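Entry 14: structure prediction run for FP protein C-terminal domain-containing protein. Input pasted below.
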Amino acid sequence: MFTCKRCDVQSRDGAMCVSCKAKFDFPCAGITEAGWRRLGERKLTWRCQNCKAAPVASPQTGNLKTSPANSETIMLELQDLSSKLEALPALMESVKVIQRELAELKTIRQEVSEMKLSFESYHREIQALTSKVTDLEDEIESMKKTKEAVVTLQDRIAKLERLQSENEQRSRMNNIEIKGVPMSKDEDLFAIMAKIGEAIDFNVQKEQINYIARVPTRNDKVNKNIICSVHNSYLKNDFITAAKKHKKLHAGDLGFQGSTRVYINDHLTLENKLLLNKTKVQAAERGFEHVWVRGCKILVRKNSSSPKYCIKTEQDLKKFVG
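Run finished. Output C-alpha cells:
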C-alpha cells in the first residue's frame, strides 16, 4: 500500500516517477493499469506530469547530473536497442526474401494472366470448333436423310424397271424368234414360216399368225431375225418345243443355199437375253447341267433329280447358282 502524492489516497498499485520517486495511483498518473503493464522495461523511464513540465538545465550550466536510475535505464534501453539491432540483418534478409517472393508472385501473376488469356483464346476456338461440329452433324443428318430418300427412290426405280421389263416381256409372250434364215429380196415370210413348220412337223396356219417381220439385232445390222407373233402362248410353246426336238435345223432344210444353223426360241427382251447368257456361263462354272427357256422364263437345274429354279434377276442368279 502507498499514499498517492496527488490525492493522498491509499492505493495498492500505481506508477512511480523515476525523477522525483513519487508514487501515483493510475488515475492521477494519467495512465491505465493495462497501459502501465504494457510499458514493460520502459517503466524505468516513466516520469510524472510535474517532472515532465520542469525545465531541463542546459549542459553549459554544469549543474546537469545523471542519477544512477537514469543511467541504468539508459543502459537497459541501449542493451534492448543493441539486441534489436542484432536482429536487423536477419530482418533485412527476411525483407529481401519477401521481396524476391513478391517478385516471383508478380511473375506468377503475369503468367497466370497470360494463361487466362490463352484459356480464353482456347475457349473461343473450342466454341468455334463446337459450332462447326454442330453444323457438320446437322449436315451429316441431312445427308443421311437424303441418302435414305435416294435409296428409296432407287428401290422405286428398280421396281419400276422390273415392272417395265416384265410388261415388255409379257407383250412378247406369243412371239417366236427365228435366227439364221438368210435374207432375200422380195421374200415371203409367211412361206418361210410354212417351210419351217414342214421341217419340224408342226405347221402354223397363216390365220394363226398375228404378224411376222424381220427386226434388226444388236450385233448384226445386216442379217435380221424373224419375229412371228401367233394367237396364243400355247401355240408358240408347242412350236418351239417341236423345233427343239428337231435338234439341228439348217438353212438348206428350208430351200436356201448354205449350211447356216437356224435357231428358234422365245422372243426375250434384251435384258433377259443378257441375263440368259450370264446364267449359261455361271451355270457351266458351277456344274449345272440344265439351262433352258420355257414361256419366256429362264430355268436352271443342277441335275435331273434336283429342283429347278426360275431366274428373273441377277439376285436370283447369285442366290440359286452362286
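Notes: Residues 2-56+63-78 form a domain with the Herpes Virus-1 fold (CATH 3.30.40.10). Will compare against the previous run tomorrow.
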